[in-house]
Specification:
Layout (H helix, E strand, L loop, with lengths): L1 H7 L2 E4 L4 H13 L4 E8 L2 E12 L4 E2 L6 E4 L2 H14 L26 H5 L16 H4 L1 H10 L16 H13 L6 H10 L6 E3 L13 E2 L3 H10 L5 H7 L15 H4 L8 E3 L1 H12 L3 E2 L2 E2 L3 H7 L4 E4 L6 E4 L4 E7 L2 E10 L3 E6 L4 E7 L1 E2 L3 H4 L6 H16 L6 E3 L3 H11 L1
Parallel strand pairs: 7-17
Antiparallel strand pairs: 1-3, 2-3, 2-16, 3-4, 5-8, 6-8, 9-10, 11-12, 13-14, 13-18, 14-15, 15-16
Helix pairs in contact: 2-15, 3-7, 6-7
Organism: Patella caerulea
Protein name: Beta-lactamase-related domain-containing protein
Pfam family, one: Beta-lactamase
């Protein structure tokens, strides 16, 4: 009984006024919605929630701790997108420029006029690569990987449609960063030296081996086969594009691969971000509070505003769902009364999420190692631990600000418009 109570009682703290969030986390642990994970939130620049619980390793029953890190999967794209924005702020890049201006070899097979803005908003048609490659090449042979990426033909007419780039997103961006950074660093090294260390973020793109003892072990709640069947039942995109998108890399074919020590330290900004929920919440809090921390600027206010403006929406050709993207970030509209605001950040495989809310000046993040494969298909209709925690967080904020309002969030532009019309 003693061992069981340790699992059911979350660790960490909440600031007075945010007790509801910790109670929700406790209930989620008790009823099985939460198997292992952490949730953190900053409000107006202050850490107000940092809680964790459950099992970091279900095989040896190792418990989640304050310093447990885990994989954020595609939430890593939020970090990669800010690296690009950081270089834009420094004058090394322009979103309006063609990628071939910085990478001449890119200008082949119909990619000559693709702009950086088109690419980061998932409009470039480069969601997959037809030539086999290993993800480890970004670490071991980036030149070879660059040749393959440069040769790829767009899978649709660039700029006309959009489709999520699950893996290729940061592979292309890494090649660009290596060419425009005055120190010729990789995207992951640039993030480490220019963002993570200066701002005190316990975040890594590729988890170094000497830190892997802190890492949670990944496990799945459900099978990928079931996910594929469910996705195909509601698929609205292009089957050919989807198949090519998921064809590579060759060295990542199973969920358990992310538990391999050599695979964990691959520095890919698409899905190899590791850290704590508190660190990811802090990162998004900086963005939600004007882009500065203690007088040090991470990003200009102009670019933060651009991150909140959708550049692509509607049916995603590669994943067949409706979504919204800005400068590399997922955009999630929120409706309170008749007011619409846009949160930005990115979700990750299995239920991870990191978001910045500039309206309430909130940065928050959820991290779990017990992966709900169906989350990306059913979000935000599926009730899970993260959504309940998010709801509880905003309930607390509304009480503190003396607001009586119903808050709705949406995945797609159509859902938002229907909700607005229903209020007229």
């Amino acid at each position: 009984m003693k061992g069981k109570s340790k699992i059911l009682l979350p660790g960490g703290f909440v600031k007075p006024g945010f007790e509801e969030v910790k109670e929700i986390f406790r209930e989620n642990l008790a009823n099985g919605l939460e198997k292992g994970g952490s949730f953190a939130a900053y409000y107006q620049g202050e850490l107000v929630v940092n809680i964790w619980g459950g099992e970091a390793d279900p095989f040896c029953k190792r418990q989640w701790k304050e310093d447990t890190v885990s994989c954020f999967y595609s939430t890593t794209k939020s970090l990669a997108s800010v690296v690009i924005a950081h270089l834009v702020d420094r004058g090394c890049l322009k979103y309006e420029d063609t990628i071939s201006k910085y990478w001449p070899e890119f200008a082949q097979n119909g990619k000559e006029n693709i702009t950086l803005e088109q690419f980061v908003s998932n409009k470039a048609g480069l969601s997959g690569c037809e030539t086999p490659y290993d993800l480890s090449w970004i670490r071991d042979n980036p030149r070879k990987l660059g040749y393959i990426l440069a040769e790829q033909k767009p899978l649709w007419l660039p700029g006309k449609y959009h489709g999520y780039h699950p893996i290729t997103f940061a592979l292309y961006l890494d090649q660009i960063v290596r060419r425009v950074d005055p120190k010729f660093r990789s995207l992951s090294k640039y993030f480490e030296e220019e963002i993570a260390k200066p701002f005190g973020l316990d975040l890594y793109i590729g988890l170094p081996k000497h830190l892997q003892y802190r890492c949670a072990r990944m496990s799945a709640r459900n099978s990928y086969g079931q996910y594929r069947e469910t996705m195909l039942d509601t698929f609205k995109g292009d089957i050919r594009v989807s198949e090519i998108t998921q064809k590579n890399p060759q060295d990542w074919k199973h969920i358990n691969t992310m538990n391999d020590t050599d695979f964990m330290d691959i520095p890919s900004g698409s899905a190899h971000g590791f850290g704590t929920a508190a660190a990811m919440a802090k990162f998004h809090s900086i963005l939600a509070n004007g882009g500065t921390l203690n007088g040090k600027r991470l990003l200009s206010e102009n670019l933060i505003q651009r991150f909140q403006k959708p550049l692509s929406w509607g049916v995603d050709l590669s994943y067949g769902m409706e979504d919204m993207y800005s400068l590399g970030a997922t955009v999630i509209p929120a409706l309170e009364g008749n007011k619409v605001t846009y949160q930005f950040g990115h979700g990750g495989f299995g239920g991870q999420l990191g978001l910045a809310d500039c309206d309430y000046r909130v940065g928050w993040s959820y991290l779990t190692n017990h992966l709900d494969i169906f989350f990306s298909v059913e979000y935000p209709s599926k009730i899970n631990s993260m959504l309940l925690l998010n709801q509880g967080l905003y309930n607390c904020i509304h009480r503190l600000e003396n607001k009586v309002v119903t808050r709705q969030t949406f995945r797609s532009h159509d859902q938002l418009q229907k909700a607005i019309q229903s209020k007229l």
